[in-house]
Design a protein that fits this description.
It is built from five helices and seven strands; from the N terminus they run H-E-H-H-E-E-H-E-E-H-E-E.
Length: 175
């Protein structure tokens, strides 16, 4: 039985989607060997920052430098999750030290964690049990603006309208 996860389409600025180029997506990691090959080519300075990540529609973890746009990392396609991810070595093994769903281009719900966990597990890394930094996104039904909900205050920062409790930023059909 295959797992059906919510797919997130790009909801960010059109000019950023225009940066997508064939072959310019993030580095796809499907195995421990893929991860070792990728990480061995990085400098200490590069590893000191979080990376932009997406879990693409096929469940593959894709990584790009932090200042990369999520839509570029995804090659313009829909994702199962997106955010930032950091790595460290502990007890001689690589592990995910921090991971968020912070992507204003895709606005993935916190419920996208299982897709991230499955992608990280597929490459054999230890990981946290959930997002280490959760971002709650909502679209205002009154003015249409995307909001980041802070401290459980479900009020639009643009027009003061009440925001829905359920995620509503642009769901696609499950994959």
């Amino acid at each position: 039985m295959s797992v059906r996860w919510r797919r997130y389409g790009y909801v960010g600025p059109a000019e950023l989607r225009g940066l997508v180029r064939p072959g310019g997506e993030g580095c796809g990691l499907r195995s421990a060997a893929d991860f070792e090959g990728w990480v061995s080519g990085l400098t200490r300075d590069e590893l000191a920052e979080p990376f932009t990540y997406v879990v693409d529609e096929t469940g593959v973890l894709r990584l790009a430098p932090r200042r990369s746009e999520h839509v570029v990392c995804a090659g313009g396609g829909a994702v199962l999750s997106a955010g930032e991810m950091s790595f460290r070595v502990a007890a001689g093994r690589w592990q995910v030290s921090e991971v968020s769903n912070q992507s204003t281009g895709y606005c993935p719900d916190v419920s996208s964690w299982p897709a991230v966990a499955a992608a990280v597990d597929a490459i054999g890394l230890e990981r946290p049990s959930g997002f280490t930094h959760e971002v709650v996104f909502r679209r205002c039904p009154s003015c249409g603006q995307l909001n980041v909900v802070r401290e459980g205050d479900f009020v639009c920062v643009f027009c003061d309208a009440e925001l829905p409790r359920r995620w509503n930023c642009g769901e696609l059909e499950p994959s």
